[in-house]
Specification:
By secondary structure, the chain is α/β, with parallel strands linked by helices. The protein has 2 domains: 128 residues, NAD(P)-binding Rossmann-like Domain (Rossmann fold, 3-Layer(aba) Sandwich); 176 residues, Rossmann fold. Helix content is 37%, strand content 15%. It is built from 13 helices and 12 strands. A 7-stranded parallel β-sheet has the order 8-7-6-9-10-11-12, sandwiched between helices. A 5-stranded parallel β-sheet has the order 2-1-3-4-5. Strand 3, helix 3 and strand 4 form a beta-alpha-beta unit. The longest helix is centred in the last third of the chain and has 21 residues. The structure holds NADP nicotinamide-adenine-dinucleotide phosphate (NAP) and 2-keto-D-gluconic acid.
Length: 320
Amino acid sequence: MTDKPVLLQIGQMTAIILAKLAERFTLVKLGDQPDRAAFLADRGGEFTAAVTDGHAGLPADVMAAMPNLRVVSSFGVGYDAIDADAAAARGIVVTHTPDVLNDEVADTAILLWLAATRRIVAADHWARSGKWEREGAFPLTRSAQNRVVGILGLGRIGQTIARRAEAFNATILYHARSDKGLDWEYCPDLVDMAARSDVLMVITPGGPETRNLVSDAVIRALGPEGILVNVARGSVVDEPALVKALEEGALGGAGLDVFAAEPKIPEALKAMENVVLAPHVGSASVETRQAMADLTCENLFRFIEDGSVLTPVPECRGLL
Ligand code: NAP
Ligand code: 8YV
């Protein structure tokens, strides 16, 4: 018999994090249960702790079946797949992994912007396919220098993107619900900001409050030379409107790391040369995923030791 506490694993986790968690917990994987409803009904009361990620979150049926759940540690900063207010009301502390991924995600945003602007994926194809030899030079692209970069969501990652964009001599504008009082220009109206921007970087949280915030009007305001970069959540952009605008030439191009129905990507986007696609890899480097794994584990370890955590989501701070 082991005296380690049980930990419910919701969703997929990498071997690194599972090995570390197994040192302190007996892991029970929700996905391994042949009959989820029966498992939750029989064993839901056993769990005080769970680990999850930004994709699986904390499903409502799991929360409802676990009256003794006290902590949920989520691997990732975005927690739109967890109803944090409902969790806080039940006395469940939700933690996430802010800050440790700011640099990686900001790098990814810049990478997608440059790739879409300088059309590096199409240029790579041109070089590999022999078109350079057969047809000559690759067509000129627009420059990424001296652009107006509008940032939607100027939080931890948004500010990191802004600082990087300054290295490209960009003028930075931003939109959020509140003026951050920073040196960059605050734009209270998102459509106006898009109309003034060459590039729109989307980096807000997901969830109902930001659903389709990047609407048809915003996309069209960005215009035929504009580039949309989304490293936030697919839900923040009206994806059908994005596809239509790209098809009509009403938007210049896009760099997309996130999609409305991941891992599905609209076929139309896959066929477009002016769009660069990535499979939600914003934070996906060995080093950053290790830092996220360490923080995910540390939150759980501290909670079982003394009831504290390092990085609770704001909704749950009052429980500590
Ligand atoms: P953060 O520090 O909380 O910043 C969020 C920003 O969005 C704040 O400036 C906030 O300002 C703004 N915002 C929130 N709701 C808004 C609304 N309704 N309208 C306009 N602006 C709004 O979060 P972060 O750490 O930078 O992370 C941001 C998000 O990036 C995460 O939640 C996650 O979804 C996404 N992400 C994606 C990846 C990836 O792999 N692609 C990796 C990490 C994170 P106000 O409160 O003033 O509005
Ligand atoms: C992760 C992310 O890939 O942190 C986030 O919000 O989107 C990414 O870093 C995702 O959350 C996996 O858990």
